[in-house]
User: Fold this.
Amino acid sequence: MTEVSTDSIADGKYVELTYLVRDSKTGDVLTEVSRPLNYVHGVNEILTPTITRELQGKTAGERVDLLVDCNEVYGPRDESLVITEKVAVVPREYRQVGSQILMENNLGQMKSFLVTKIEGDKITFDGNNPLCGREVIYQVKIQMVRDATAEEKEYGGKVEAGPEA
Assistant:
């Protein structure tokens, strides 16, 4: 008879999880992570502190659904981060809705912008997080919980084997 592990999430536990994010109004899936992400609970966070707190005490196989106001996570939308340009001045490889482009401000700071609209000879870029201003539901599925090794605790998650030196 094999013993089934019933480890629950607590500080020092290695956790693997998948999740999807739904728009709370439409139910549309906005993001889906089906390849398990891993972390060591209490050492680092891969999702917001609110979600990490909700995972405390849960076990493998459980699902946690949590309503999240993205204004609290990413701050309110900043309309000054919405830029409209003439399509002709934008390199061809970025002339598609959904394309990401890194732009530098006058202070030399880099920021990622997303092409959100192309109308006529105008193209719109938005530097706000796509979840900004939305209320979403995170559906987190816990895949595995076990004691973390000393190396995983130090690293904050699974230690991948690197190339041999």
